[in-house]
Amino acid sequence: MSTKKTEKKTRKKSVRRKIEPKIKDPAFETVKIKRDKGVTFLIMNRPEKRNAMSPQLHMDMNDAVDYLAIDPLTDVLVVTGAGKAFSAGQDIKLYFRGTADDPAARAKARRASNAWRWQKLSRFPKPTIAMVNGFCFGGAFTQVCACDFAIASNTATFGLSEVNWGIIPGGIVSWNVGQVMNYRNAVYYSTTGEPFNGKRAMEIGMVNKAVPAGKLKAEVMKLARLMQEKSPAAVRYTKEAIRAVRFMNEPEAADYLNAKSDALKHVDKEDSRGQGMSQFLDEKSYRPGLGHFERRNKK
After folding, report:
1. Number of helical (H) and strand (E) elements in the chain, helices listed first
2. Of 159, 174, 248, 281, which one's alpha carbon is 20 to 30 angstroms from that of 205?
3. 4-33 pLDDT, tens per residue?
4. β-strand partners of 159
5. CATH number listed for the domain at residues 22-229
6. Cα angle vertex 186, ends 208, 87, to 5°?
7. CA distance linking residue 115 with residue 124, whole number of Å
8. pLDDT tops 80 at residue 42
9. Are 155 and 132 in contact (CB under 8 A)?
């Protein structure tokens, strides 16, 4: 009996290995890519520097985000840092002082920095989650704000410390925190430089959830798996719509959202709308207010 069970387990494992293709991702100097059945972890990998963002890290992340944006095996992207930090912000020595006498190098680093942390990440076609596992300072706020979701460890430390060494928050950080925090908190933490933990980050809207450090990855994976069950086209168009209408007045938003809704019907190869309506009205197999339809036409 035990032999038969063992044979069954072996067959299942072999099938699973055939289904999951071997992927040879590009190698980067300061970035790692790890995968877990459709959930891709993009990891800032300078743990000895608390993942401070050097010009090289910006170049690597810029390329990695481009690569994963069109990767068919990435359903959800998780951005995090290696070791005990998410990111300590810009590498003051390499990013600022190291390019001070080289305008071309500074401009190149600045473009790459803004491109991946905001332009590309905020428009990433798949759901994105910032997994804040430790220190998150200064410039690192931008990629947290760019992600669709953010989950932090209770003990993660956030801080806008630029004021402590005589500058304003770098890049577009002031704009970012002005969007995700209310005005009072954005001004308070930017002008005092006072650090705050993951629990406080959740209270002021910087992250969606804060959980014990030991449960952080499990909580992130729970959300990622939920996103995998939803219609990819509907999720993408919904998040794009919400980002866009924040800067519109009501008539502009109404026109945009009507057009976006019509466009979704034409680009959704799974016919999510049709599946959802049929399973609700005809099969009565689910209730939209309590759960999602079953994706039977996965592409």
Report:
1. 11, 10
2. 248
3. 444 444 434 333 333 557 789 999 999 999
4. 137
5. 3.90.226.10
6. 60
7. 12
8. yes
9. no
Tokens (6 digits) for 75: 């359903």
Residues 47, 193: Cα–Cα separation, whole Å: 23
- The Cα–Cα gap between 273 and 263 comes to 12
Cα separation, 205 vs 39, whole angstroms: 25
pLDDT for the residue 17: 36
Mean pLDDT of 249-277: 94
pLDDT tens digits, one per residue of 61-81:
999 999 999 999 999 999 999
In this structure, are residues 267 and 233 in contact, taking their beta carbons and an 8 Å threshold?
Answer: yes
SS3 126: coil
Query: How crowded is residue 124: how many other Cβ atoms within 10 Å of its Cβ?
Result: 20
Percentage of the chain beyond pLDDT 90 is 79
Which of 244, 258, 263, 252 lies closest to 122, judged by CA? 244
